[in-house]
Design brief:
alpha/beta, 8 strands, 36% helix, Spore Coat Polysaccharide Biosynthesis Protein SpsA, Chain A, eight-stranded mixed β-sheet
Length: 252
């Protein structure tokens, strides 16, 4: 594995990172009960991608939301031909939502961030510049805006999975990542829950795909409820981790 680490204090020579380049990109958001956030997040993405003059599509993955997320997403798609929606009839889990987004992507690059608005998609363009020399840009959160226990759990989880799979990722579950779409033609994705980021990076690095890292800002959640810290999600992730470790050791 070749890992290039970008210093969060450095400024890239091309501040926009993707201006005047022919950019073909899918941007998608996994959403579960994000009625207060999904419209703002989608419109921000439209603004950034139009400024880049990119060949783009935006996919909203509604993971069985019980609020008005699905209706808002459908309206956004009706209003803009570059936006489409994938609906899960029931809540299948974070990993399943990401799988749907990656499998539906049609462009050369695939970027995802959560639909909760805790990241600023205006920090996407410099990642496009970085991926010219690698296959994945895996970001890490600067000044993570989560409760202390959640931050501690996240740090411990990252250390655990990086030790098991011999990776050097600073923030495994940071929901701000850019991939070459071809990766998803060559790896298996089986995780339906929170292990999905670990599975993708572990399988990709095992196949020799190159990973760069970059810091991005993280903001407090303005609305909605976090689900990642629920005990059921955590137990499911550990169960999937054991299965993934055994499968990769066996060469699967």
């Amino acid at each position: 594995m070749v890992t290039a680490v970008a210093d969060e204090n450095s400024q890239p020579q091309d501040r926009n990172g993707a201006q005047n380049r022919n950019v073909s990109i899918t941007v998608f958001f996994p959403c579960y009960n994000e009625q207060e956030n999904v419209e703002r997040t989608t419109k921000s993405a439209l603004e950034v991608l139009n400024d880049l003059n990119a060949d783009f599509e935006i996919i909203i993955v509604d993971d069985g939301s019980s609020d008005a997320t699905a209706q808002i997403a459908d309206r956004l798609a009706d209003d803009n031909p570059c936006v489409r929606v994938i609906h899960h009839a029931t809540n299948l889990g974070y990993g399943a939502a990401l799988q749907s987004g990656f499998k539906a992507a049609k462009k050369q690059l695939v970027f995802y961030t959560d639909g909760d608005g805790q990241f600023d998609i205006k920090e996407l363009p410099p990642l496009i510049g970085l991926i010219e020399d690698c296959d994945i840009v895996s970001c890490y959160r600067l000044n993570r805006q989560d409760p202390m226990m959640r931050k501690i759990n996240g740090w411990l989880w990252t250390k655990l999975v990086c030790t098991l799979f011999r990776m050097k990722t600073r923030d495994i579950d940071c929901a701000f990542k850019l991939y070459r779409r071809e990766i998803f033609d060559n790896i298996i994705m089986s995780s339906k829950g929170a292990l999905i980021d670990t599975e993708i990076l572990a399988r990709a690095t095992r196949k020799g795909y190159r990973v760069a890292q970059r810091g991005v800002h993280h903001y407090p959640r303005k609305a909605g409820e976090q689900t990642g810290a629920k005990l059921g999600v955590i137990f499911r992730a550990f169960g999937e981790l054991l299965k993934l470790y055994n499968r990769i050791r066996a060469g699967d």
